[in-house]
Amino acid sequence: MPTRYWLIDPELLRRIGTLEAEGGVRQAEADVDEDELAEAHVRYAVERDAVIPDGHLGPRPSGGVGGTRRGVKCLHTHVAWYLAGGDDPVGRWVAERIELPEPLPRSVT
């Protein structure tokens, strides 16, 4: 599965679902810079793939946020990564439209 972060708060899920139902995916794709979004997909994939153990012989995830390589597939997956501290322009876009808690700070290693 390419998804690392999941939302579990029912109210947050409902609010994001409402935004999606009102055309939020298409609007996010129109509003968010295409290159910035593509770079976010790459960052997500690099972060995800970094935790796959060397020598792993099973299936490997592909794509970026939500398993896609370009565009927006699901606002929920973008918001989950954003709230976990990911640099996600779609997560920021959603945060500007609905009340979201502050994202977690990323740890510096």
Task: Give your account of this protein's structure.
- The chain is mostly helical and 109 residues long.
- It has one domain (10-97).
- 50% of the residues lie in helices and 0% in strands.
- α4 (75-83) crosses α5 (89-97).
- 27% of the residues are buried.
- The model has no long low-confidence stretch (mean pLDDT 91).
Brief summary of the model shown:
The protein contains 5 helices and no strands.
Helix content: 40-55%
Number of helices: 5
**Classification by helices and strands:** mainly alpha
How many strands? 0
Q: What is the typical, i.e. mean, pLDDT?
A: 91
Q: Topology as H/E string?
A: HHHHH
- Terminal CA distance: 26 Å
Overall shape: globular
Oligomer: single chain
Low-confidence stretches: none
Largest sheet: none
How much β-strand is present in the residues? under 5%
Can you tell me the number of structural domains? 1
Radius of gyration: 14 Å
